Amino acid sequence: MPSAAEIQRKIQIEQIKKIRQQEEEARRRLSKIKHKIIVLSGKGGVGKSFITANIAAALAKKGYTVGVLDADIHGPSIPKMFGLHGQSLYAGPGGIMPLMGVGNVRVVSADLMLPNEEAALIWRGPLKTGFIRELLSMVNWGEMDFLLVDLPPGTGDEALTIAQLIKDLDGAIVVTTPSDLTRIVVKKAVTFCNQLKVRILGIVNNMCCFICPNCGAKYYIFGKGGADKLAKEMGLRLLADIPLDPRISEAVDKGVPFVVAFPEAEAAKKIMEVADQVVEQLEQKQEGEKEEGDSASSRDPGDKRLYLNF
Fold this sequence. Notes:
By secondary structure, this protein is an alpha/beta fold. It contains ten helices and eleven strands. The protein has one domain: Rossmann fold.
């Protein structure tokens, strides 16, 4: 009869085997998606989910197939922004099917698995890690051009799990606001990306100012200069300054992405510019990789010299 230690060891081996299978299945499903981007901040309250949802909607408006994974387990807000609040995910023979939100964006979120809006997921780290891993192994995104992952504030379990599980991330978009306090905290998100070798596509300075609709005067409600200083300190590109607009709240409450509801607004135009820059950077990356591959394949197979490609 096996000892308690042997039984425990057998259980642990089975658990590890299950984790490896989930990771393999997650990577298989994600391999059908051309570009995978995380959106993070390190700081709460900067409008990160708003930026994620609207960049996704902007890409969809340009004709790309787009999905958003809401990885904010404890405070999911993506479904509400796409008019999906109160709906539920369902599973078919091929796995969990994303819901199609307003603006033709596919959405998956823990919020779409809860019985009501008061329900809370009161989980510690291991449960969150396991949930994300299992979710990615079960969601049937299908073939897509872009997947944007909306991460919660901080650099903890959810961010680390996503960054380590999706090994072929194309990059990260870091969201900040103009205040110096935000700059200090957001720098930690930049350090997180650097340590995990995730390329940073750029910084979005959200709520940069309020532009008076009557006279056009700019009011810097949350300060000025923090995002520029952050970009300069960390050697990053500032993708856009997104102004405040009272209609943003109106669009969110109605469940319509701002770039869809108010395309002529200055904030919407700036977000469309961010989408353009993201596409441009990824196209340049692809061209660089293709040129590098062509260069490697054109070398004389008899040439025994060592080549290093950086």
